[in-house]
Amino acid sequence: MKSDFYTAISQIAAERGIPKEAIIDVMEKALVTAYKRTNGNNPPPMEVSVRLDPTTGAARVYAEKQVVDEVFDDRFEIELEAARRIKPGVDMGETIVVESTPNDFGRIAAQTAKQVVLQGIKEVERTHIYSEFMSREGELLTATVQRTAKGNVILEMGKAEAVLPPKEQVDSDRYYHGQRLKVYLMEIRNEERGPRLIASRTHKNLILRLFEMEVPEIYNGTVEIKSIAREPGLRTKVAVAARQEGIDPVGSCVGMRGIRIQNIVNELNGEKIDVVQWSSDPKEFIANALSPAQVVEVHLNDDDHSATVIVPDKQLSLAIGKEGQNVRLAAKLSGWRIDIKSATALLEEERAAAEAREFAHAEALATEAALSNARVENRKVRSDGTVIYQKVRYGPLGNDLAGEEVQLRATPQKLYIYSNDRLVASYMLVEADEVGLVEEEEQEEA
CA torsion angle for 128, 132, 134, 137 (degrees, to 10)? Predict the structure, then answer.
């Protein structure tokens, strides 16, 4: 017949969700502490173990004692003759393990070990919770709101508690006692006070797990989520692709009459979700990412990984979105920096660019004509690398040209300097402010 002790142990194990063997181990360690306390404040070093009968709950103490000729303290010593009855061949000065259960150890154990046992069971429970949830990190879990404390929302997950920190909370969410919600188990920390489970409602992987729950094609792998861009509580864009021919990835995620996507939106308290077709072609993917706006053309610039997107005039505000939200999420989703322009604005820019090119071309022709008719003047480069033209110093041209002869040609606006028919420098013409100084220096050199 099972004893009350066995029944109590089984009940504790069932309530706490921990193995009976772990509870018995904790109690045995607690009883070792209790026994050592009965030996005074400073007992000699000794090995002590306690064995509990799992059926009756009877405790037996086994302690290490030293073999001596004459016993002065039977708590730590044993006579040679008695020791050899337990272990034949033992010699003086050696130690042996002897059953040393005190007569009133049951009462002492009950009084002394109670708090230690309770604390030990809590430690076992924490360790069990940590090992249980360690393998569930990154999963979608259902939690119940218990309370709020210092901005944190405390959640109940079965026998464990989780914390929803302020930065992992959605601003538009309202949390109340007893509320059930889906959370993403972001991190598990094993701290001194026990395992600390950190949950999140803002993590983008929450979207991934919700889609896996609602869309069988994503769960079984025939449809893949390629990327997610999210602004928690406001809007999310999800790019999906089919791994099997004949499957519509966007339609699979939306579901019949939008029921699948609506379930996810409801779980996120109305957060808008755009599901778009992923493409290996960046132009096509960027155009899809800007949905629901229509795109006329996409120009890519690989040097700075940017894209210029042309949209109809009436679609400009839709493509940009409220406070730039749509284009911002599209950029995060695609990984490209996106600049949106209307068709009219692009035509105006192209017209202005064409006019600028024509002006530059006309200016170049005028300069070429002016240079072909300009008089060539020879000058010797001064020791400081400069040349004098119309009593104004220009340069420096470089130490390698000092003392060399160069050719000067001037248009109404600029001075061009050549060395061996190679253009080495050009300067805007200026008026001579220090004519006397230049003339004086030239006279000194002469």
Answer: -140
Note the pTM of the prediction, 2 decimals: 0.58
Q: What is the CATH number of the domain that holds 184?
A: 2.40.50.140
Distance CA 15, CA 33 (A): 26
The answer on 50 and 22 residing in a single domain is yes
Least Cα distance to 29 among 95, 112, 98, 92 occurs for 112
Give burial (CB, 10 Å; 0-12/13-18/19+) of 42: exposed
Q: Tokens 């006070």 appear where?
A: 193
Dihedral angle sign, alpha carbons of residues 9, 12, 17, 18 = negative
Query: Does one domain contain both 387 and 427?
Result: yes
pLDDT digits (tens, 9 = 90+) for 37-53: 777 666 666 788 888 77
The CATH number assigned to the domain holding 289 equals: 3.30.300.20
pLDDT of residue 17: 67
Distances (CA, A) of 278 to 3, 69, 246, 369: 66, 88, 15, 56
User: Which residue range(s) make up the domain with 145?
Assistant: 136-202
Lowest mean pLDDT among 17-26, 101-110, 194-203, 237-246: 101-110
Q: Which residue's structure tokens are 């306690």? A: 50
* Listed residue (32, 37, 12, 4) closest to 124, CA to CA: 12
Encode pLDDT of 420-434 as tens digits.
Answer: 888 899 998 887 654
Residue found by looking up tokens 């989520």 in the block = 225
| One domain for residues 193 and 233 | no
Q: Stretch 66-95: mean pLDDT, rounded?
A: 81
Per the structure, how many domains does the chain have?
5
